[in-house]
């Protein structure tokens, strides 16, 4: 059946190719801004680990510059431009922006479908903003960022994929030419130098492009509501309840930590209902063993927190597993300098 989708993939790829050519030739207008704008995105549909990479850049920059993030706010229950405040929820601004807002309250977080309009609105609301991080904006070409970062999943490299619906690419593989930096994400933590070199040869970055490799690092569990550390007695039975594009890396991590791990999967960016809370409670209760715990992701947590009443009614404790990215082969400083060098062409260096 999938083969029957190939003609539609060719047609969609042609449409995207024409659209990109129109932007490349100036037939469609792309707006540039005077301040540093860094776009992080991917060629494929979801699941590349984009969010922890954006968080990495927030941590890198926020102590030196006034940083703002701008996202579309995918699957939110609102529309238009919104600047996050103390009353914002995942329903208002989307789960990923809400995650940024909750973890980094000292930066500006906003959402807007039309980024070329949202950036001036952001600068009007927060005129001292120095750096804007565009979340998931690789195909949003109406804004021309000063730096384009493209992230591709180690297990689903764009070089081995096809355009939707036959594959998972949002546009043809040659779209990677627009990137200033390519990151191969979710690599094995002990990726060998020989495999790195093979991947470099396969991706074949252009002379102006930098190529980095990252892996995921999972942290200590905390209670979803109180944010206090959670200790899990061993042996433990774990129910991973989550709605993310690719739960496999987290599932594998949990299987290394705990004796028995079960997955209860929901659609990506899913908004939970009270029935779902009851289902999670029952699934956990039915698992074998005496020590049981429900674990979810940070992205799911901001959506689950919309149902505080149902969680309290079910007396359901959920632990959150945080995740960060780590650069392989000791290249974190190279990436950091790459980012600071770009910003330094527009703004004074930190400390000056």
What does this molecule look like?
- The chain has two domains: 150 residues, Rossmann fold (3-Layer(aba) Sandwich); 100 residues, 3-Layer(aba) Sandwich (Rossmann fold).
- It is globular and about 65 Å long.
- The strands form two sheets. It has a nine-stranded mixed β-sheet, sandwiched between helices.
- Helix content is 33%, strand content 20%.
- Helix 6 links the parallel strand 7 and strand 8.
- With 352 residues, the chain is an alpha/beta fold.
- The mean pLDDT is 93.
End-to-end distance? 61 Å
Low-pLDDT runs: none
Largest sheet: 9 strands, mixed
Which percent bin holds the helix content? 25-40%
Structural class: alpha/beta
Q: Give the CATH class of the largest domain.
A: Alpha Beta
What is the domain tally? Answer: 2
Number of strands: 14
Kindly identify the CATH topology of the largest domain. Rossmann fold
How does CATH name the architecture of the largest domain? 3-Layer(aba) Sandwich
Write the layout of secondary structure elements.
Layout (H helix, E strand, L loop, with lengths): L5 H19 L12 E5 L8 H12 L5 E5 L10 E2 L6 H4 L1 H9 L4 E4 L3 H11 L5 E5 L11 E7 L27 E5 L7 H11 L6 E9 L3 E2 L13 E6 L5 H10 L2 E6 L8 H13 L5 E6 H7 L3 H7 L3 E4 L1 E5 L4 H13 L8
Parallel strand pairs: 1-5, 1-6, 2-4, 2-5, 6-7, 7-8, 10-11, 10-12, 12-13
Antiparallel strand pairs: 3-4, 8-14, 9-13
Q: What key attributes describe this structure?
A:
single chain, 352 residues, alpha/beta, Rossmann fold
Give a quick precis of the structure:
Helices cover 33% and strands 20% of the residues. It has helices at residues 6-24, 50-61, 90-93, 95-103, 115-125, 193-203, 248-257, 274-286, 298-304, 308-314, 332-344, and strands at 37-41, 67-71, 82-83, 108-111, 131-135, 147-153, 181-185, 210-218, 222-223, 237-242, 260-265, 292-297, 318-321, 323-327. The strands form 2 sheets. The chain has a 9-stranded mixed β-sheet with strand order 3-4-2-5-1-6-7-8-14, with helices on both faces.
